[in-house]
Each structure stands twice: as structure tokens, then as C-alpha cells.
């Protein structure tokens, strides 16, 4: 993500403009705790460091009606492939392909995100917008959704991350400068729409 975007998110977290969508979401709670204990100088240095890293997509988005049995393990799902398949339903389930590599924090770990059948095509249609009420995502996020000075690059990001951000904008737990632009965009989106958009954007090449 660009430096300006990252720095603004850290300022929003510190100011309380970004809150937890769910009180039980430990990673978000830990991030808020860390930023409150981090000086502005160190936060800026961290934003500059991370903005200099190149994003490498190690994720595949797979449409499916039935998926390997997911078991919650810490902050992720582990797929137990020896157990019977289960129905995905209207949700996104993603997790590491090799749980042991994930536990070792191997940065080359690959992931699979299972999304509902047809969700990528439906999401692509939603991303094109419906006129003045909901302009196309590319208007702010650029061609291929690879980012502009207005909107950050979102192509190829994790679908659950994308869903959480859209939900946060709609629920009001994510405020601040960028939220002002996004709130009218997400206002008319259903949960189903949000899943479809996250699936489509996550399927793109960054």
C-alpha cells in the first residue's frame, strides 16, 4: 500500500476513526493496542517501510459449492481434507495450503480462498457500477484496481480482508477521510453483494 494511505490509516486508528468491526477479532484489537503505544515518528517510519515492499500474490480464489472441512485454528482456517466435504453456502472461507509453513511464518506460504459459485462474475458486474449512484470501482482505484492517488491498490488482496473493509465502511466502524468517499458506495450493497465484490477483486492480478 502507498505511504500516504498507510500513514493515514495509522492516524485514523490512533484518533479512534477506525474501530473494531467485531470485538472478538483479535488481530484488529492488537493493531489498535500497538498503534496507541507507538510514537508518531515510529508509526511514520513503519508506514514508509511497508510502503516500500512489493506485494506478491500467493493466493488463489476458487469458486465452489462444497469445500474441504474447515476448522478454526487461531486466526485462520485449516482445511482437513480427510474429512467429508461441507457446503460453503454464502460465505468466504480461506486458509493456508500448508498450515505448518503458516505456523512458521514462512512468507512464501500460499493460500486458498473458497467463494460461492458465480460470485466472481457477479462481483465483476458490481465493480462496473450502476451509474451516478455507484460509480465504477476503477474511478478511484484505477485500471485493474491497481491504485491511484485517490484509492489504494486492492486487486489480488485477500477476499476476507476486502469483505471486512467494505463491511466496516457500511457499519461505520471505519471512518476518516477514505470512508467519506466509500460510504455512499457501500450503502446499497447487500451482504451477498459484498461477498461477490470481495471474491472478484481478490481474483485479480495485483
Folded structure, characterized:
This protein is an alpha+beta fold and 206 residues long. It has two domains: 1-53, no CATH class; 55-206, Cytochrome c-like domain (Cytochrome Bc1 Complex, Chain D, domain 2, Orthogonal Bundle), CATH 1.10.760.10. Helix content is 44%, strand content 14%. The chain is built from nine helices and seven strands. The protein has helices spanning 3-15, 26-36, 40-51, 99-103, 119-127, 138-141, 159-171, 177-186, 191-203; strands spanning 59-63, 66-67, 69-73, 76-80, 86-87, 93-96, 111-115. Strands 1-7-6 form a three-stranded mixed sheet. β3 and β4 (76-80) form a beta hairpin. α5 crosses α9 and α7 (159-171) packs across α8. The radius of gyration is 17 Å and the shape is globular.
List keywords for this structure.
206 residues, alpha+beta, 44% helix, three-stranded mixed β-sheet, single chain, two-stranded antiparallel ribbon, 9 helices
> Would you tell me which CATH topology of the largest domain applies?
Cytochrome Bc1 Complex, Chain D, domain 2
List the secondary-structure elements in sequence, H or E.
HHHEEEEEEHEHHHHH
- The CATH architecture designation of the largest domain is Orthogonal Bundle
Query: Which percent band covers the strand fraction?
Result: 5-15%
The CATH superfamily name of the largest domain is Cytochrome c-like domain
Major beta sheet, strand line-up: 1-7-6
Instruction: Give the biggest beta sheet.
Output: 3 strands, mixed
